[in-house]
Amino acid sequence: MKCPFCNHEDTQVLDSRVLEDGDAIRRRRRCLSCDRRFTTYERAELMMPTVVKRDGSRMSFDPSRVRASMELALRKLTVPSQEVDAAIERIRESILLTGEREINTEEIGDRVLEELLKLDQVAYIRFASVYKSFNDIDEFVQAIHEMQRVIEANNGRAAKSSIEKKAVKKAAKKTTATTAEKNQRKK
Ligand SMILES: [Zn+2]
């Protein structure tokens, strides 16, 4: 780390401490050439992207808003709150992991839909009807078809992987059998 006073290349760290909230480290440094002292702060660059609303206005990401809209969609349904908490955490994490500076509300809505589909199909349709603001029955029907398509695609993947697992098991059995036969022959 360069000295900000004399530009000398080498500085000595006198003291490092993690700040109270744990998201930054403060270091006291001393320049080995001019002996002046200064402080540096080290922070992780991961930040929640700014949310861009449909009208172009910006706001910071607020998980309580996501929760409110999910709870509205889930009202009177019997989804345990820890499952809702876990879903919100997955949404927050997936947004953080984009590494983008900005995210629009539509993208967040898509992630909410994805999670609601895992929780409850009625909640999915409720959320989609508000968020995609259906204008007529056709759009409603379309949303249901879209949901069925996603469910079938997911089931297809699950079925395929279970077929693969069975094939692996079969192959494993065959190998075991062949080994057993060989052992038999040896005797
Ligand atoms: Zn210096």
Structural class, from secondary structure content? alpha+beta
How big is the Rg?
A: 28 Å
Largest sheet: 3 strands, antiparallel
Strand content: 15-25%
Q: Write down how many β-strands occur, each being a DSSP E stretch of 2 or more residues.
A: 6
Small molecules bound? zinc ion
Give the ordered list of helices and strands: EEEEEHHEHHH
Helix content: 55-70%
Dominant shape:
elongated
Distance between the termini: 73 Å
Number of domains: 3
Mean pLDDT equals: 84
Strand order of the largest sheet: 1-2-3
Uncertain segments: none
**Helix count?**
5
Protein model, in words:
This protein has 187 residues and is α+β, with helices and mostly antiparallel strands. The chain has 3 domains: 11-43; 50-133, no CATH class; 136-187. Helices cover 56% and strands 17% of the residues. The protein is built from 5 helices and 6 strands. A 3-stranded antiparallel beta sheet has the order 1-2-3, with no helix packed on it. Helix 1 crosses helix 2 and helix 1 crosses helix 4 (121-131). The termini are far apart. The relative contact order is 0.08. The structure holds zinc ion. Residues 3, 5-6, 8, 31, 33-34, 36 line the site of zinc ion (ZN). Residues 3, 5-6, 8, 31, 33-34, 36 line the site of zinc ion.
Task: Give short descriptive properties of this protein.
187 residues; alpha+beta; 56% helix; elongated; binds zinc ion
